[in-house]
Write a structure and sequence with these properties.
The chain is mainly alpha-helical. The chain contains 3 helices and 2 strands. A two-stranded antiparallel sheet has the order 1-2. The longest helix is centred in the middle third of the chain and has 16 residues. The mean pLDDT is about 95.
Length: about 70
Amino acid sequence: EVEEWILQLLTDLLESSPRTLISLLYQDKWNQAAVLPVVWKLMAQRRISFLFDEPLGMDSLIWTLRGTHL
């Protein structure tokens, strides 16, 4: 599943940006455009975290809390 693939890659990276994340998932611009809404959806669901007090864009810092022990 694409969502799991995105979350696993971001877990492995520890942190990234939407731009970097989608470019690591796909080299092709069409596939990048197709997967970007999935990244935004995961952010809206708070499965991908970001700084809430800063403007959100393609170069914003994102991360996931998967695999962390709180």
